[in-house]
Amino acid sequence: MFGDPITNPMGWEIQKFDNIFTKITDGTHNSPPMSNSGYKYITAKHIKENKIDFERDETYISEEEHKKIFSRCSPKKGDILYIKDGATTGIACINTLEEEFSLLSSVALLKPSVKIKSEYIVSYLNNPTVKLDILQNMVGGAIKRLTIQKNKKI
């Protein structure tokens, strides 16, 4: 329906992510101590194409640690979670969780403006051609990553 998203044969208007999201950030850059209960701590291992798979490898952090992280990075239902670091970079899903949770820095939080649907962006990011094009812009030595600045330019 939309044609090839890379060559854009339909001539659709092109916008950078920085213009269509109200916030682009990531989770904590310091791994907090794990807890047996508390708030969910979502990392790249929990993000699958089109879903959060938390049941397989549950990780939790304390309320105190969660509050520190959530004050800077506050995912809400309908936001987009996008893996930006490591071997699984480029996988996107929509947050379907109602409750608060915290993110590790390997996951970017993309808060869409009211002008665009999360479903469209997730389909775009998970498109194999788009993913390949984006992954060619990764930087880093031992761990390849898409920095927040690079995410804003997509």
Fold and architecture overview:
Helix content is 23%, strand content 21%. It has 154 residues and is of the alpha+beta class. The chain has one domain (24-153): Adenine-n6-DNA-methyltransferase TaqI, Chain A, domain 2.
What's the topology here?
Blueprint (H helix, E strand, L loop, with lengths): L16 H4 E6 L12 E4 L4 E2 L2 E2 L7 E2 L1 H8 L9 E4 L8 E3 L6 E3 L3 E6 L5 H9 L1 H8 L12 H6 L1
Parallel strand pairs: 2-8
Antiparallel strand pairs: 1-9, 2-5, 3-4, 6-7, 6-9
Task: Supply the key terms.
154 residues; alpha+beta; Adenine-n6-DNA-methyltransferase TaqI, Chain A, domain 2; 4-stranded antiparallel sheet; 5 helices; 9 strands; 23% helix
Query: What is the CATH first-level class name?
Result: Alpha Beta
> What's the CATH H-level superfamily name?
DNA methylase specificity domains
Strand content: 15-25%
Helix content: 10-25%
Which ranges are low-confidence, i.e. pLDDT below 50, for 5 or more consecutive residues?
none
Cα gyration radius (Å):
16 Å
- DSSP helix count? 5
Largest sheet: 4 strands, antiparallel
Can you tell me the CATH architecture?
Alpha-Beta Complex
Distance from N terminus to C terminus (CA atoms, Å) equals: 21 Å
What is the molecular shape? globular
Reading the helices and strands in chain order gives HEEEEEHEEEEHHH
- Rounded mean pLDDT is 89
- The main sheet orders its strands as 1-9-6-7
Task: Give the tally of β-strands.
Answer: 9
Structural class: alpha+beta
In short:
The chain has helices spanning 17-20, 63-70, 118-126, 128-135, 148-153; strands at residues 21-26, 39-42, 47-48, 51-52, 60-61, 80-83, 92-94, 101-103, 107-112. By secondary structure, it is α+β, with helices and mostly antiparallel strands.
